[in-house]
Amino acid sequence: MFDQVTLKLNVDPLIMGALKEDITSEDVSTNSVMPEPKLGEVDLICKEDGIICGLQVFARTFQLLDESTKVDLLVKDGEAVKRGQLLARVTGDIRVLLCGERTALNYLQRMSGIATYTHSVVTLLEGTGIRLLDTRKTTPNNRIFEKYAVRVGGGNNHRYNLTDGVLLKDNHIGAAGGVKEAIAKAKEYAPFVRKIEVEVENLDMVRQAVEAGADIIMLDNMDHDTMAEALSIIDGRAEVEVSGNMTRENLEKLSGLAVDFVSSGALTHSAPIMDISLKNLHPIA
After folding, report:
1. Which of 166, 266, 174 has its CA nearest to residue 217?
2. Which residues are catalytic?
3. Which of 266, 222, 253 is nearest to 128 (CA)?
4. Are 116 and 15 contained in the same domain?
5. Residues 218-258 pLDDT 10s
6. What is the rounded distance in angstroms from the CA atom of residue 224 to the CA atom of residue 240?
7. CA angle, 224 as apex, 218 and 228 as ends, to 5°?
8. What CATH number corresponds to the domain at position 229?
9. Are 90 and 73 in contact (CB under 8 A)?
10. Structural domain that includes position 192
11. How many domains would you assign to the chain?
12. Residue range 149-206, pLDDT digits in tens
């Protein structure tokens, strides 16, 4: 759950932006059928099994339109939910319920989809000691929601943004003139509290990264045998992250490898949404 400071400073403006995208001047459909305020109630229904995530954002969407809107949550973020389950009941001005419906569901479906997919990958890694990381391959202006959903699903966050840490990828290495040169420049420039991670694509780059004193070495798009040899070269002198097409279907390539982390862009860029609906809207006295 987002704390109140994060909610007001970083979450509310993004939700408001999404609402403004959907309502430029008025909701013509709603105003046509409901010209005056009227109290109503609607059910939030799960339409498939999964891990629910984003309930606070769902509720906040309606409350930013009308702070008197009441959202009675029957589940909590991170809980497994089932098809047909009643998740919440929303009470308020029917016009507000109709205006905010799509935006609220967009957040909830997307975040729940990411949490569900992440949970499925974490389950596959159980017992290996490997920690699952996300990436910066997020939807623009939705990173705060998507990375939160990864955590709810049992995964871990890699860098939140470019300020968080040093990760030297192929183009950084090319710009610096080589692996050793890039690491040396990073050690000279970056604050001492920052770990230095370097992405490597072959065994020669692995050797250079170890010799230059990288804290974390990312093995990018290597096959099983090459990763095994890379781990032998590193020999515990750096933490090891594996990346590159690390989807749920490809995790078997890590079998028997003592790596520390696996990072997967698929957690945020390829997770399907979870089907959730608002149903049974009706006026109440």
Report:
1. 166
2. 137
3. 253
4. yes
5. 999 999 999 999 999 999 999 999 998 887 777 877 878 99
6. 14
7. 70
8. 3.20.20.70
9. no
10. 122-269
11. 2
12. 999 999 999 999 999 999 999 999 999 999 999 999 999 998 778 899 999 999 999 9
